[in-house]
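Thread: Newbie trying to understand structure tokens

Hi all, I'm a second-year student working on a class project, and my supervisor (Dr. K.) asked me to get a predicted structure for one chain before our next meeting. I've only ever worked with sequences, so writing a 3D structure as a token string is new to me. If someone could post the tokens and maybe explain what I'm looking at, I'd be very grateful. Here's the chain:
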Amino acid sequence: MPGLEPSLSDEDYIIARAKQQSNIYSAKAWMLTAKTLFPTNFKIQFEAYLMEKQSGNVQEAAECFSSLIMSRQNLTDLLPEITAIANSLKSTEMSFLSQMFDNICPEIQLTILKTSVENSDDTMEHCRLLVLLLKKFPQLGVDSLVKTLINAEKFFYDNRYARLLVVETLPLLSSLESPRLLQRLLVKAIDFYNSYVYDDNEHDITDPWQRLYGVLDLLGRQLGWDPFLISYNNSLNKETYFQKLVSLRNCEDCRQLLYCGISFFLRCLYEHRSLKGHNILVEALTDPDAPPSKRKKGDLEVTGTSAHQFQAAANCWELLHSDDVIAREFTKLANQLQVKPWSEVFVDELALYRGLYDDANPPLTSNNVTACVVRVSINYFQKKYLPCIENILAALPQLPTVEGVLESELIVGGKHRHLHFLPNTKVAIMHYFCTLLIRILLSTGNTSDLIYGHILVLTQLGWPQEEAIFIQIMDLIRQKGVFHYHLFSAYIIHIDILEELTYIWNEQGSNVVLDILPNSQQHLGQRRIGTRGADKGVKEDFKQAMKAQVARSNDSILNLMIQFITSERSYFLSSK
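---
Reply by user tm_fold:
Sure, no problem. This is what the structure looks like when written as tokens:
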């Protein structure tokens, strides 16, 4: 025949003629003839399969490939195609090969997947193919794969093995005979998911904490644990869950408290860190004259954006350290985890929460604004006012650029201890500093007008939170009948304070002398402004001065406070 080598075998000749056909039906006719004449010939059967595959005929290709597998001939030559089929099944996208696989009977599907597993040399690829096999045929059991993965030498430094075990293999488990092996798996799951949530580069696993509780449920059901504790979900109340954990404290078997407790602790801690951002935990303030918060539990109140999550984590930490046995087991377990957030910021926050000021105090080598704020907080509540003021002054040049807003929860009602997550913003930090400086000045016992004037300046930023102190100062001024403050025009611009001073000045029957004008506006003889208003020129000076201050009432009080504290640094440093 022209175009064909005369030395071709009969099988090759028919294959060659089939390939020459421009019409698919003619080609198929040649191949049908070949298959009839040589029903066991591998080359003809494989060529028929390729022709159906190239034509996109899913069902026909599936039948051809099934015949090839059943013949058990030349499996080595089929390996590239078997590998391609296995790879198509790993993808979530539909392809010709995956559709073809779905049209093959289960017995042959099993043979295809087993062959791919048996012929994979790479350990990682072998395990992945085994997972694929078990997903399709879960009745085979996953125990051997679990043991292979958990004992793999590479597991400890190659996170792919951990992911394959925890994310893909463990959901296939229905039970395991060995509780000890289950505990090892749970530790791997805790380690993997806790590491995963802190990895900024990976976001493809939905609800990792709920997946962790799925593993906890597997172990817990086998050991007869409380269903509530092992099936914790996103809607459950943290306080209720924690009380359930507390009830386990005296159990002889500490495993339920240990594993449920550390899973709950890590979840609360992660939620706290996610919500907290750069907020700084500080000792905050209380007002005994204001009604106490309804949210307060016990002698301690924590406020701020992540307060609920932090307190849950802190309480759980303390529960897991309330007994020597559970504390020892918790420490052993914690040392196996790759990510230890409590060794970073949480351990310092926990020390402050527990009132261990020496442990919570940042080292002197740390001088960033966060460290300064924490030292300010601790120094103040240790009544070490000089280092407190020094740290305030050290923080001023480092204030964040984000301005932020006032904190409504910086001062709460009652006499209990109060911690607050202070936003790392310029307004929040300056508000905190001003509040502490007011109390430092009040603690001196000094009743000079200069002290009262400085306090009036400092009340402006958090107004009206310090209004009660302002009213007390106004009453004292009335009682004394005189108020000298030469910095009034430089630093007092809040409209409410200006209105009250004007009211005092205009008050009928009063005899209050306000020495608050700058020296350039005083008349000869340093005359003072009194409410009797005998000197019309002085009265006019006062009116004009107050108008000038009112005109500045829209100026930035924040910047004014920074300028004030900086300018008066020597006074503050000498006040204590």
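A couple of things are worth pointing out once you decode it. The longest helix spans residues 255-276. The chain has a mean pLDDT of 84. Feel free to ask follow-ups in this thread.
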